[in-house]
Every structure is written in C-alpha cells, then in structure tokens.
C-alpha cells in the first residue's frame, strides 16, 4: 500500500478497543506496535501478523515506557502515530472513594498518557506525526458513581486540546476521540464495589454495583465496529488537523446535550436509573 504508517497502540488486550483498532489498521497494511501491560492478553489473531510487533508496556511505569520506546527506535521505522488507548476505570461514590485507587486511575489515564507522549515526542516530531488520545463522552457530562473516571477523561480532553495548540508549530497533530458506549471487557478490571453496611449509599449498593460491572447502562457497539469507525480519523485521512471527534453510540446525543440542554434537565437525564431518587426517599424516611 502507498505510504504505510508505523503506529504504536497502547492497551491491546483481547476484547478491547486497542486490539480491535490494531487489527483493523494492520489489515490495511500499516505496521503496528501492539502493546499491553501483560502481552499474553494480546489476541493471537493480532500478534501472529507479520506486520505486528508485540511490546510490553505499562504506562504507569517510567522504566517500561523507556523500554518500549527504545524498542521502537531500534526497529528503525520511526513512529508516525501514537494511539493512547490504555486506561482503567473506577466506580464508587466520591465520598467513599479509596484515594490510592483514585490516584491509580489518574496514573494510568492521565500521567501515563502524558509520560508516553513525552517519551515519543522526538520520534513524532521527526515524522511530523499524529497523537490520538482516547477520551470519553463521560468527560463532558456529570454521571453519578464514575466521578474519578470521568474527571480523568476530562483531564485527557483538556490535555489533548492544549497539546494540539502546542504541537501544531512542530507539525504534530493531536486528535481526541470522545468515545460513546462501546461493549468491551473494560469493566472486568475494575475492583468490586464494596460498601460498608454503614455507608450512606448502602440502600442502593446493588444499583451502583450494576453500573460498575456494566450490567446497567446503555448498550454499545462492538469494539470491532468502533475501530472501523475511527480508523480514518486515526490515520488522518479525515480530521487531519486533529481536535475533538465524537464517535460511537450516544456520542452525538451527548455532544448536543452538553452544549444545549439546561443544566437541571441534563442532571435529571444523567441521574435516571442511578438510584438517586430511591436514596432520597430512604434518607427522607430516616
């Protein structure tokens, strides 16, 4: 194919967006560095391809970042596109959130992302390349129980837009994908929601747990479908200058609501089914 790209993608474990995107782009003829903290979780259908190089990469570990970037340099292909997809979630009422766990979310979703960008910056500037950061529609709406995760994605969005301005003179574009609802194994790595019997939220423990495990909430598209829908944006064949791109089920609706809905109406919509009304009734009785 003309002008194949060299692309590094983080978070390529099976059944996720990273693996699906890596497979989509590899099948188009691009060379992929497929990375994961545990490379045994990268699907064989991806790792077996001749134009895929598997690398271990834990974005929360500076030594792991340095090792992965060193391997990319040694390969001699340069780096055209960096896709920051790795991340983690945390579902818990903010009053009862474990701060160490909350900090770990920021280490993976925010500081790890920025650390990898910094480590890859020479390669990306040399290639006049592209950075693609995976954010979420949760970054722009207030949803109960996922405040740690959503705020980390709001930070990713803001960092992306600032980087877009700062890197533009250097010839590097920055794209931030505001992902809608995607069906993956994302929730499998979340800790179980454990509320003490004395918790202010004990009455709706099951509701919160259902959101944490993905049993509640809107249905999404598959990771493969989502990967196919964003491949053009990742490559720069569309959205060449970067910026925010809204993709996936519910993303267009959230974009509209966040901009145009009155705050009170938006709060009611985002709180629907979250157990807050039930909790209020329980509290009023006591």
Automatic annotation (TrEMBL):
CDD domains per the UniProt record, alphabetical: 17beta-HSD-like_SDR_c
Keyword Ribonucleoprotein included in the entry's annotation: no
GO biological process: one example: triglyceride catabolic process
GO CC aspect terms: endoplasmic reticulum; lipid droplet
Domain Ketoreductase as annotated: residue spans: 5-186
Pfam family, one: adh_short
Family: Belongs to the short-chain dehydrogenases/reductases (SDR) family.
Protein name: Ketoreductase domain-containing protein
Organism encoding this protein: Aspergillus luchuensis (strain CBS 106.47)
């Amino acid at each position: 194919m003309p002008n194949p790209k060299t692309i590094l993608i983080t978070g390529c474990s099976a059944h996720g967006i990273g693996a699906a995107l890596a497979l989509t782009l590899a099948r188009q003829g691009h060379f992929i560095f497929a990375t994961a903290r545990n490379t045994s979780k990268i699907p064989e259908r991806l790792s077996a391809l001749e134009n895929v190089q598997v690398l271990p990469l834990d974005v929360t570990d500076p030594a792991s970042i340095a090792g992965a970037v060193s391997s990319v340099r040694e390969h001699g292909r340069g780096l055209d596109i960096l896709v920051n997809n790795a991340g983690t979630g945390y579902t818990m009422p903010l009053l009862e959130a474990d701060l160490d766990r909350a900090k770990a979310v920021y280490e993976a979703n925010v500081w790890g992302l920025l650390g990898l960008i910094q480590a890859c910056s020479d390669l990306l500037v040399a290639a006049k390349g592209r950075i693609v950061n995976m954010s979420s529609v949760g970054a722009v709406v207030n949803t109960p129980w996922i405040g740690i995760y959503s705020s980390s994605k709001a930070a990713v969005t803001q960092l992306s837009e600032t980087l877009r301005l700062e890197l533009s003179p250097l010839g590097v574009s920055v794209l931030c994908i505001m992902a809608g609802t995607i069906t993956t194994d994302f929730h499998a790595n979340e800790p179980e929601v454990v509320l003490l019997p004395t918790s202010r939220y004990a009455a709706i423990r099951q509701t919160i747990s259902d959101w944490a495990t993905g049993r509640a909430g809107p249905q999404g598209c598959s990771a493969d479908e989502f990967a196919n829908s964003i491949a053009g944006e990742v490559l720069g064949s569309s959205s060449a200058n970067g910026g925010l791109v809204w993709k996936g089920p519910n993303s267009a609706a959230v974009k509209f609501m966040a901009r145009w809905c009155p705050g009170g109406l938006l709060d009611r919509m985002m709180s629907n089914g979250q157990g807050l009304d039930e909790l209020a009734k329980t509290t009023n009785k006591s």
